[in-house]
Structures are given as C-alpha cells and as structure tokens.
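Standup notes
- DV: blocked on the single-chain target, sequence here:
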Amino acid sequence: MALIVLYALSVSGCRSHDARQLNSATLVPDERLIGHFIDDYGIRYSISSSIWRQHPGTVYHIDYWDAAGQFIIARNDESNSGNPGLWTRIDWTILEDSGPYIWGFCLTVYDARSSTIAASAVPALRETPRSGCNGFPFSRMQREAAND
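- DV (later): unblocked, structure below
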C-alpha cells in the first residue's frame, strides 16, 4: 500500500493543492481566454491551457484554472525578470459592450510564496474594472487577428 501511495505522489508531482483543485471543472480553461491577444497598452499575449506568455519574455506556468471563480493560479517562470519562481493569481472578467475588447485581467497577486497563498488572495473587483485591480484598471484584451 505504501508503495502505491509513493508512486501516486511521484507521478502527480507531489503538489500540495486544496480541494478546489481536485475538482476537474477547475482544471478546464475558459476557452475565451485561449489564443493570441493584445491588450489596451499594446502588449501581446499567447495563452494556452498551460502557459500564459506576456511577450516578449514573461512566462507563467498555469497550475490550474478556476472557471467558477474566474481566476488562474500560475507559477512564475524562473527566467522572469520579476518574482521568478513565485506564484501569481490572475483574475479575469468578461467585458460587455467594450468595443474590440472581450475580456480583461488583473494580476491580483504576483509574488505569493505558494499556490495556496495566491489562491486565497482577495479577488479583484470585477464590478469596477476601471479601478478594481488593486486600484488600477483591468488590462483589456482583444484577439490578435493575425495569429488566430
């Protein structure tokens, strides 16, 4: 029995997650956020189910998606210039009547010491996207037509 448990831990990567992550619904990305985007500051992004890339060189390794809570928990790449190896919570909101912008995001926390700490951060205020990201506006995203 102990060997089975050790094997299970070894193939799972020995992650320590809360029960929310074990629900398969939290592992499924929101398909509206997958693809190539440009924000209202002119920054390009490539987002897959497992990688959030802010071009040119910032990478977040997505640990899990919480579709119901509208947030992602990701580990900052070791090569990122800011907070390498730490954890980030990215909250998103779907935008209505915002021209070419279809959704917005907030790096709610970007320097947490663990995924659990990042997940337990106070969510961004989606009701006030112009100031709900720690006093700043959400970054608004539109599809980058040339890459999709």
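- Follow-up: Confidence is low (pLDDT under 50) at residues 1-25.
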